[in-house]
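Something for you to look into today, if you have time. I want to see for myself how the chain folds. Leave the record below and I will have a look.
***
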Amino acid sequence: MLSGINTDIQFKGAVYHVQTEDGGADNPIITTLLFKGGAIFSSKKTNYAEILQSPSYQDVVKELMKEQHKSMVRDLAAGKFESPPPVPKEVRKNLPVQEAKAPPPSPAAPQSGNKKKSLDDLILDYLSEREKGVD
């Protein structure tokens, strides 16, 4: 198991922490976590089981760790974590059309006569409204 890599980054007034760790030969996974305010903001994992038999696998793992760590830092600097991911067109076209200027129902408000929406539907509605610029 190789030692981890840790970096603190200030970006747009916030402090982020990037942490990359090796799981070792028993758990051959490189994990990179991006923290914001102590909470995990993003993560990436790479399995390297296929290179364990190589005599120099630790050197390769060390390079993979460095590259994955740098990749997370580059993604942060490029602004990839600033906005929610776009809702795919095929999902958007199936979303129900809402009347203009009608406020969305409160999650706590009873939906009389309407079928309750699943959590997935509520999230899609929220993302759709954010995409339209309504927050």
Observations:
- The chain has a mean pLDDT of 79.
- The radius of gyration is 21 Å.
- The first helix runs from residue 57 to 77.
